[in-house]
Amino acid sequence: MAVEHTNTELISANVKSVKAKRRTNYSVLGLIIPGIIGLFVSFLLPLFVMIRMSLNENGPGGQLIEGATLTSYVETFADPFYWKVIGNTLLLGLVCGLFSILLSYPIALFLTRTTSRWKGVLMALAIAPLLTSAVARTFGWMALLGDKGVVNEALVNFGLISTPMRLSNNFLGTSIALVEILMPYAILAMISGFGRISISLEEAAGSLGASKFKVFMRVTLPLSLPGVFTGFLLVFVLAVSSFVTPKLLGGGRVFILATEVYNEATQTLNWPLASALSVILLVFFGVLVATYQRLIKRFEG
């Protein structure tokens, strides 16, 4: 009787364990399924539609011809203009990423290390530009960098130049504005990475006779590279996909993939070509993310 009672208890415990696992699985599925549905509706489905659209053909007067052809891709890679557009896009991302990191690195490192009671206020000031629309900041830079803008007027009044410099409606002005607009993102990304740097390693290097410059170059900088790579990736992606700033501050003279997608879709009504350019831009993102993952594994390993 005792053995049967024990077996009954074991069976009951196993049944309860199975039921608990099933409830856990159902709870997990209940949490995951809405996210999967949202991802499918908001990303995967539009991505499929975009890829399918890129395989169609553009007829006379913007007529859409259903098909399965690579004509739009061939047209893109056979036209030197689009190679220039791709080059401009990559160059803009590299320039914005590089200068955003160089300018944001000291700020992020200071905000990570400071023990001031005003640290929260300083952090808020660093990311405060994000509270302002990129459109508003772009118009602000148009006023600053124009031929009659604040910068040119100041340089002329101080006698440093005799005629206004071209700081707007070109690649230079667009890059300057985007660097300032995207710097808060770089600061946030690097702050999250710098928090893992151990100060004790720097103190140990200093106690062994290393100068502050050597400590920075051989300890601080290598340990902060994952945060730097994250910041660069974020700024690069935001720069190459930016539309408002290149469109307004570029004055129609800065051609990148985002602006060309808009032009092809709304002006020439060539939706297949616009979709093909979007797919090419997405491929660039994928290659960059894959490169980022390999770099992170290398430096963290």
Intertermini distance: 60 Å
What's the number of extended β-strand segments? 2
* Main sheet makeup: 2 strands, antiparallel
Portion in strands = under 5%
pLDDT < 50 runs, ≥5 residues: none
**Mean pLDDT score, rounded?**
83
Number of structural domains: 2
Keywords: Cell membrane, Membrane, Transmembrane, Transmembrane helix, Transport
GO cellular component, one term: plasma membrane
Membrane topology: Multi-pass membrane protein
Family: Belongs to the binding-protein-dependent transport system permease family. CysTW subfamily.
Structure description:
There is one protein chain. The protein is mainly α and about 300 residues long. The chain folds into 2 domains: about 1-55; about 80-300, MetI-like fold, CATH 1.10.3720.10. Helix content is about 75%, strand content about 0%. The protein is built from 12 helices and 2 strands; from the N terminus they run αββααααααααααα. It has a two-stranded antiparallel sheet with strand order 1-2. α1 crosses α12 (about 270-300) and α9 runs antiparallel to α12. The longest helix is centred in the N-terminal third of the chain and has 53 residues, at about 1-55.
